[in-house]
Specification:
single chain; alpha/beta; Alkaline Phosphatase, subunit A; 2 domains; eight-stranded mixed β-sheet; 14 helices; 14 strands
Length: 472
């Protein structure tokens, strides 16, 4: 009987792990993965932002590798984290619904690591991968079929409110068995929407904020960005608290620490969209003695996180994973490992039609990107655009009012309030704000075709449920 690619991967992966050299526990690094929530790379000092207060992240970046072209597998929390933890597309592992629990047959990074001796844990804000069994209908179904599985996948599992990071990280390390390496995934709340008005004692000066090219300079935009900046700064302090614990316990030199955002900021053109502000997140990696300080512009995907960390632990990448190990890039052996990155926009929230058919609740689209061009394939172009989470904030309400009175720049009008096309194509060098759609231009026909073919292959290999962009 001929096996499918997925069946072959499921059959071969355990054998690959068992075939690894029996490296001693002391040779494997401790691994700490830290995620901020809704954090676009440009809102970090070490990524060139001149006013945002992120001194701890900036110092950490100088001690390791800063990746400038990391793009998440989706612009939303659940499917993006699926990519991080499985090395696969959220489409391929059936995580297209925001409230889905990760299927029990899909193995995760901590499970692979636990097989070779790692003590594993997840702490702080919800990790988003056990579904949302709320209500009198869904909850009994989850219980009947045992759909929540993470209590079996890791040794330590915690969901706790803000202010508990030091306590929970300390608790996890106190429970770590002697002589065993550990994997800990720490999740932060900040800078997720809604944004507080008093996040830090010395708020950012709204008048000094650089306004991104994809947003109009309006008072509401400045105020919303200011509150967002303040939450990023608060998160920066929480991040340092984790590093301090590692230092106090003498673990810094023995630990690989990865910091990333889970997806982009919840602002127009950001979270929930396949534009760069929704996908391009900070990615900082420190591993003393193994990763030299520097900057890499290599394309990287959220699907690459698990393969990278598995290889760092001395394991091979299982066949079913579409992600690629970035370890050769991080250690200076190669400049890049991929030509394309891909991302998928899926449903958002638990009640997609509660507030009407707008894109802040439901949208279906796919993206392929190179260093120079991006193509977006919209399968629900009839949906009216509305930003995820922040659609009731001043920034969006003022943009809508300016549109109503005809005062918005034409590029903003087309992007946010015009008819949504099936295909979007952007020249990222000349149009980094992604405001000028070049799809259908004769001079870019070859580029468009190449990107469509790359996307077609990705969708086929992921068993994507959407219609393919090419009928050939």
């Amino acid at each position: 009987m001929k096996l499918t690619r997925r069946q072959m991967g499921a059959t071969i992966a355990p054998a690959l792990l068992k075939a690894q050299p029996a490296a001693g526990a002391s040779q494997r690094p401790n691994i700490v993965m830290i995620l901020s929530d809704d954090h676009t790379a440009e809102f970090t000092g070490c990524y060139g932002n001149p006013v945002i207060q992120t001194p701890n992240l900036d110092r950490f970046a100088s001690q390791g590798m800063r990746m400038t072209s990391m793009f998440t597998a989706a612009p939303q929390c659940v499917p993006s984290r699926t990519g991080f933890l499985t090395g696969r597309s959220p489409v391929a592992v059936r995580m297209g619904r925001f409230t889905s629990p990760l299927p029990a047959d899909v193995r995760t990074l901590p499970e692979y690591l636990r097989e070779v001796g790692y003590y594993t844990g997840i702490c702080r804000r919800t990790y988003h991968l056990d579904g949302a069994p709320m209500g009198k209908v869904s909850k009994p179904i989850y219980e009947k079929h045992g759909l929540q599985t993470f209590h079996r996948r890791v040794d330590y599992l915690d969901i706790s409110p803000p202010g508990q990071t030091v306590k929970k990280v300390t608790e996890f390390l106190d429970r770590q068995p002697a002589g065993r390496p550990f994997f800990l995934w720490v999740n932060f709340n900040d800078p997720h929407h809604p944004w507080d008005t008093n996040a830090i004692p010395n708020p950012h000066d709204r008048a000094r904020l650089p306004i991104p090219g994809y947003l109009p300079d309006l008072p509401g935009v400045r105020e919303d960005l200011g509150r967002y900046y303040d939450e990023v700064a608060r998160m920066d302090g929480e991040f340092q608290s984790v590093l301090d614990i590692l230092e106090q316990r003498g673990l810094t030199e023995k630990s690989l620490v990865l910091f990333m955002g889970d997806n982009g900021a919840a602002i127009p053109h950001g979270k929930g969209t396949l534009y760069d502000p929704g996908l391009n997140v900070p990615c900082l990696v420190r591993w003393p003695q193994r990763i030299r300080p520097g900057v890499s512009r290599a394309l990287a995907s959220g699907e690459d996180v698990t393969p990278t960390l598995l290889e760092a632990a001395g394991l091979s990448v299982p066949h079913e994973m579409s992600g690629k190990s970035l370890l050769p890039v991080l250690t200076g052996q190669r400049e890049s490992v991929r030509q394309h990155v891909f991302s998928a926009r899926l449903t958002h929230g638990s009640r997609p039609f509660k507030e009407g058919t707008t894109t802040h609740t439901f949208d279906l689209s796919r993206m392929v990107r190179t260093q120079h061009h991006k193509l977006i394939y919209n399968c629900t172009p009839h949906m009216q655009y509305s930003p995820v989470d922040s659609y009731k904030e001043r920034s969006w309400l003022e943009m809508a009012e300016e549109h109503y009175w005809g005062r918005l720049r034409p590029a903003f009008d087309r992007t946010y309030f015009g008819a949504r096309p099936v295909l979007e194509l952007y020249d990222l060098g000349n149009d980094p704000a992604e405001l000028s759609n070049l799809a259908g231009r004769p001079e870019l026909a070859q580029v468009e075709r190449q990107l469509l073919e790359a996307l077609q292959e990705k969708m086929i290999l992921d068993w994507d449920f959407l219609p393919l962009p090419l009928a050939e």
